[in-house]
Design a protein that fits this description.
With 392 residues, the chain is of the alpha+beta class. Helix 4 runs parallel beside helix 6.
Length: 392
């Protein structure tokens, strides 16, 4: 805070602090480049100053230039009744002059020591036997190689990440989205005439099964997938204008941001790179996996990857932020189709990107908003789980 003209720093707590429960208010203070600032502190009760002003320099000061000092002010110095809850305090400049900037940190009320125990009987009981076990599927990894699986004995190996949200299993093409200029890049394959056999996903599953681990395969649910094995990109400079960055190896492939560095290119045509898909396309992939590896060999599947980021990572095909209803409706549509033919598979979702995605929909942003209010005020994942329970 700038110590001048009687300014003050105010700290507030709605519930209040019962001063009789504590011995002192302690904090750290730094005198900035000047030091020796004249400062007073006073407790606040129900929004009004109460008791006495206390000179903080009398309890650990004066403030030092370029150095932190610890200030500890006894609660009795504030002269308020012990039964009165303090709802805050303020630190106030005790001068009208400019005394420089002071810094404060680590405010804490120091508790009174507990009375010594007496007449305590300690009974030692044998620990109960565990009534639960941990799944060995906890020890998984993403994209492990055969050597890594052999060396570390991972129990699960995940085919996941941004580039598989729009993986074309029948063509072996991955759109790398915002990670690499929204490019649909064909994976190398020995014999294209044998597609969909011999793909990188087939190799991944085979490697994982041979190592004795469980493959976890991400299934696309965004509704788009690369349309052929031609190298394509979503934001052509020739078609959509100059952009902030381009692929150094394919200079027509832009990053979808205009040259001002902050404005997205909008209105692009998703069919420049992709074709629309529906649940039948995903079910056919499970048909292929079953034919290639045998019934129930691959048991675990994830419903897409980080759908909460579709409107940024995959904004070339899904520019609108995801809502409660869209996530659930897409999940129900795809899961129903899969379970109708493959009732024994284990489906997992919705694979959130981070903490914010557990609580709020992208349509609301990272805080409560109209989308949450329209769904009974339930948190994003709370609502999702409630819908899953309805259809169990």
């Amino acid at each position: 805070m700038l110590v001048s003209n009687w300014t003050a720093l105010y700290m507030h707590n709605d519930q209040g602090v019962l001063t009789s429960s504590f011995t002192a208010l302690q904090f750290k203070a730094h005198g900035g480049s000047v030091g020796n600032q004249p400062l007073l502190i006073q407790l606040i009760v129900s929004g009004n100053p109460a008791g006495s002003y206390v000179d903080i320099n009398a309890y650990g000061g004066p403030l030092q230039a370029g150095k932190w000092v610890t200030i500890a002010i006894p609660m009795t110095s504030f002269n308020i009744p012990a039964s009165t809850p303090a709802t805050g305090f303020w630190l106030q400049s005790n001068t009208a002059n400019d005394a420089g900037t002071a810094y404060f940190d680590d405010f804490v009320f120091l508790s009174k020591p507990l009375p010594p125990p007496s007449n305590i009987t300690v009974t030692v009981m044998p620990a109960p036997k565990p009534t639960y076990t941990l799944s060995n599927m906890l020890f998984g990894i993403n994209w492990a190689s055969a050597a890594q699986l052999a060396a570390n004995k991972y129990t699960a190996n995940r085919w996941g990440g941004n580039a598989v949200t729009r993986y074309a299993w029948d063509l072996d093409v991955q759109n790398h989205a915002s990670d690499w200029f929204f490019e649909g890049i064909p994976n190398p394959i020995a014999d294209e005439s044998k597609l969909p056999y011999g793909t990188s996903s087939d190799a991944f599953i085979n490697t994982t099964l041979q190592a004795g681990a469980e493959p976890i395969v991400t299934l696309p649910m965004i509704g788009w997938s690369p349309k052929d094995r031609t190298y394509r990109w979503s934001f052509s400079v020739a078609k959509y204008g100059a952009q902030q960055k381009t692929d150094p190896y394919h200079t027509d492939a832009g990053n979808g941001i205009k040259t001002d560095g902050k404005t997205d290119v909008v209105g692009n045509d998703p069919t420049d790179t992709d074709r629309p898909i529906d649940p039948s396309y995903v079910v056919k992939w499970l048909d292929h996996i079953t034919e290639a590896f045998g019934p129930d060999k691959v048991k675990y599947f994830e419903m897409d990857n980080e759908p909460g980021l579709w409107s940024s990572t995959h904004r070339d095909v899904h520019p609108a932020p995801l809502s409660y209803d869209e996530l659930w409706n897409r999940t129900l549509l795809y899961v129903s189709a899969i379970k109708a033919k493959y009732p024994n598979v284990k489906l997992m979702g919705p694979v959130p990107w981070g903490w914010c995605a557990y609580l709020y929909s992208p349509q609301d942003g990272c805080s409560a908003g109209p989308d949450q209010a329209a769904h009974g005020g339930l948190k994003f994942m709370e609502y999702y789980i409630s819908k899953v329970a309805e259809h169990k």
